[in-house]
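User: quick one
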Amino acid sequence: MSGAPALRIAVVGAGYVGLVTAACLAELGHAVTAVDSDRARIAALGAGGMPFFEPGLQGLVAAHRMTERLRFTHRLDDAVRRAELVFIAVGTPTGGDGASDLRAVEAAVFAAAAAVQGPATLVLKSTVPVGTHERLRRALAERQPDGGAARLALVSNPEFLREGSAIGDFLRPDRIIVGADDEQDAALLLGVFAPLVEAGAQLLCMNPRSAELAKYASNGMLAARISFMNEMAQIADATGADIEAVRAGVGSDRRIGSDFLRAGIGYGGSCFPKDVRALAHLARQHGLEARMLDAVAATNERHKRLLFDKMASHYRGEAGLRGKRIALWGLAFKPGTDDLREAPSLVLLEQLAAAGAEVAAYDPVAVPVARRLLGERAGLCWCHSAADALAGADALAVVTEWQEFVSGDPAAVQAALADGVVFDGRNCLPCDTWRGRGLQVIQVGRPARDAQVFRAHLTASTMP
Ligand SMILES: NC(=O)c1ccc[n+]([C@@H]2O[C@H](COP(=O)([O-])OP(=O)(O)OC[C@H]3O[C@@H](n4cnc5c(N)ncnc54)[C@H](O)[C@@H]3O)[C@@H](O)[C@H]2O)c1
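Assistant: Done. Structure below.
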């Protein structure tokens, strides 16, 4: 893709970010070794398997195993020994008090620093709290007092890819953020990203602390937009407004924009929840309050429980759900992934089980992951298709807005459901059409029937 010489690159961590990074760097022409301490994962990758679902990734990995620009190992020393660039893409889950657990990052950085033989740049791709770069740089210097650390540059390069569109996001990013102490430290990395910048990506170079905070601030802002609209949805529910009309009214303001304004049953995934918590923790560490961030997280927790509340209210209390069979469409925290980390579906499954409801769950890709996570339980059956889940069900709950569900056949749903009621936690179903088939569709922040009446009235009154 560029005239720059190919580099020897190691990527530590072959998870969602690491594996995508490794495959995309190979696509850019570099010789990449991806290393993961999970031997089973490496064995599966070596055999052509995929540890998780990400559109297009299996093909890209296979293509670059063929070009021999991508290989896998579980031995970190083997991967980094001759590397010029080492990307650190290991997990940073929530630890105690909401803080980021940095043990994997520290272990990977120190092991890479000890194993690398020539001059190299270590690149922090994992999301880490402000000050981590500086602390690690100092620790590296202390561990290698003979000047060994001078061979090593440490650069921040937070990742912004989204699961479900990760390859496109990596190769065609809105922006690339590089946090470095000086230009020399960043030089190799900037060379790697040059083709992406030439293709239109914005490159933002800043000090490492700013790079670290920019990542958290982006996720905090996106999570805040979702929680804000979810709070508006509660107000809409209470006042009879329609959150979808409100969304159109708000999102058409160019100062606001229309992305990330969909109301629903809350965000999940591996990033927003933990990053909002980590940022709030960071604020408190610095003697600050984090009222907005705490409210964002609390609103989200509330919204994860909202669909159950709507179901209980429909069935005149939780007791009314006992013995009901609920078809559950969607398990992943969003479409395009099989990631279940902090997914709202998990909360709903627990609530329904506690209320004594039976659940028939289906997701286009996440059933195997859910099955591994939750196992076989009484009252929970894993289904092979959306239709399979509907068989014998009283009601349907839509939890993930997969296109397959959005374009589902309401006639088939109507014929299958004993109670004829659909709880749409993502406001993703074309509710007029579904209601037209005789189904009762209950959404988030939307009047049950008024919207339909209003639209009919509007059409009539604008007719010549
Ligand atoms: N998932 C996303 O959409 C996303 C997006 C942007 C940023 N991030 C950030 O990127 C980082 C990685 O996230 P992820 O979702 O890819 O995590 P993940 O849990 O999917 O993958 C992490 C991988 O690192 C491996 N690992 C841990 N310690 C290791 C070590 N010492 N040596 C080798 N391998 C090791 C684990 O076995 C695992 O396979 C996190 O900080 C996350 O916040 C994630």
